[in-house]
Amino acid sequence: MGKRVYLQLGTLLTLTVLFNLALFYWSAQVVEKSHALDTNWQQNTANTIEKASLLAQLERSMGYGGFIHNFKNFILRGEQIYFIRAQQDLSNVYRSIDSFSQFELSAKESQSLAIISKTVDQYAAKLLNENIQNKSRDNIAQIDKTVKVDDTQAEQALDALRTSLRDSYQRTLTDQARLTEDMNIFIKLGAYFLSPIVCLVALLNMLMLWYMQQLLKERSALMEVMSDTVIYYDKDGRIWQVNEVGKKQFGYSKKELAKMTMADLMPNHFHGATFLKQVKHSFNHPLLVDTERDTCVVAVHKNGTKKRYKLTVSVILNGDRQFYIAVMHDLSEEQALLEKAHLDYLTGVYNRRQAYSLLETELARLNRYHRPLAILLVDLDNFKPLNDKEGHLAGDIALKELCVFLKESARPTDIIGRWGGDEFILVCPETGHHSAMSFARRLVDEYAQQAKNNLTLSIGVVAYDFITDKLCADECVEQADKALYKAKSYGRNQAVIYQPELFSIQSSS
Hints:
Strand order of the largest sheet: 2-1-5-4-3
Strand content: 15-25%
Largest sheet: 5 strands, antiparallel
Number of domains: 3
CATH topology of the largest domain: Four Helix Bundle (Hemerythrin (Met), subunit A)
Helix content: 55-70%
Number of strands: 10
CATH class of the largest domain: Mainly Alpha
Structural class: alpha+beta
Shape: rod-shaped
CATH architecture of the largest domain: Up-down Bundle
């Protein structure tokens, strides 16, 4: 499930990145073509306009009010002012010709410009010559000969330049229209091709978002459907999410839990990195790292009460961050059931099966270290007459009171169990012969002083200075039972310890 989700996300991410690269390339091409179109238009139109301006300036410097006009006035009138003006206009003409020649010209344009330059040179030579000779201006024929220059070719050259400028402008318009059409076609093709992909990628992203939302809903539903507390938290212990069961078990609201950490719920267990060491890190799964099972912790309710939980922690990898899911199973109910299964329903001490199991456990433990052990088999004297006379309710009360007495008298490490009817067994680890008999006699004496209805205790004791693997639970109980039988036969209200030599002699006789 996790690998498939990651594969789908990776595929979609790859497609999205590739499409974005294609879209970026297409956009860059559109911008580049637009820039080229604008640059081409600006360059061509700027050249054409500047050439047209220079051509107009050339015509103005040469024509009426220009060089030729002032040249003729100087010849006719002989006034020096017209000579100066003619020279100034001549300089403007040459400057315009030089500026025009700086452009990239066609052969025809270069030829036309050369013809114009040659004609101007002829006029310039006549002007200089006339200024030097300063001839009489009374002879009209001579004047006409002086000013006459064949400028037909120059006029044709000017027309050729004008035509060339118009043709250049038309070519610019044609090129611009062609480039515009190419760009429009490129934009349309890109739009026709990329638009469906845009829609497809958008749809896939929407589907993936919907799918991820469904996964989140499933995760939330899974958390809510569980009967145990589920807590989602980060490596610092900050709580991110808790299911409804957890809110009820701990008594906190959603807002309160969002401000808390795991240390607030488990102050005796959660200590940051120390707690995280309980989680194994094998990294066998892209999502689930590993789980630490059967860790028992004590958590604190909002009202201060404490409960035992079985804690299971799973590590979740979210990118380069780690999160944790803690499943906390309340052991209260199981503990109650366990106690019901192991305890006697009437007296509250261990039942026979659990007492026997604990006896076997102690035998194995003490055998490992060769330590002493004592077993006391306690019988309540005169119990049957009490039941017959006062009824079973009185008998039950007597049994309960006896168990209370035994619990108060025994050590916390001693095991107390109901062996059957009015018989009880006490397993006393680390207890030798003398201690066992001293304890048994104290039980007999103290109980006789406080008991009612003429009730007393008969106790059979068996004690071992050290346990060996030759001893078994059945043999130990059998020896204690024999000692109990002797205590009853000797008149009850006493304790008798099992002595192998004495009991074997009596058995033979």
